[in-house]
């Protein structure tokens, strides 16, 4: 028996690097957006959307639950504006914006060489991501 056959097989462990975490986040955020959209539709059905709004309005509500989408159809649209729906909106916006800007970051990593442009573009993407989240949360809480 050789020394090689007595060794245990080597298993590859993922490195918990920034790239691996962001790769994992992209998969999780995509699934999370589907689950949030599905819960938005179920919530709208529970609140009576199946008999009170058309399909186009329901789809708008699914991705961005906003009282202005249902005001023309319902007498009491304020019932639809609760902390639950605002949290849903913030979560959808967070995952969608983060998912998209992470994709933009990957494109920059792939196509911009190792020059002074890469850190500059990374900073711009980060600042845009942060600005979009702040503006979105402000709009959601003020609506």
Explain how this protein is built.
By secondary structure, the protein is mainly alpha-helical. The protein has one domain (22-142). Helix content is 73%, strand content 0%. The protein contains seven helices and no strands. The chain has helices at residues 3-6, 18-46, 49-52, 55-63, 67-70, 83-111, 117-142. α6 packs antiparallel against α7 (117-142). It starts with a helix and ends with a helix.
Topology:
Blueprint: H1 3-6, H2 18-46, H3 49-52, H4 55-63, H5 67-70, H6 83-111, H7 117-142
Helix pairs in contact: 2-4, 2-6, 6-7
What keywords describe this structure?
single chain, 143 residues, mainly alpha, flat
Write a brief structural summary:
The protein contains 7 helices and no strands.
For the sheet with most strands, the description reads: none
Give the SSE order as H and E letters.
HHHHHHH
How many alpha or pi helices? 7
Shape descriptor reads flat
| Count of β-strands | 0
Gyration radius from CA atoms, angstroms: 22 Å
Number of domains: 1
Range of helix content: over 70%
Gap between N and C termini: 74 Å
Low-confidence stretches: none
What portion of residues belong to β-strands? under 5%
- Secondary-structure class: mainly alpha
Mean pLDDT: 80
Q: Oligomeric state of the chains?
A: single chain
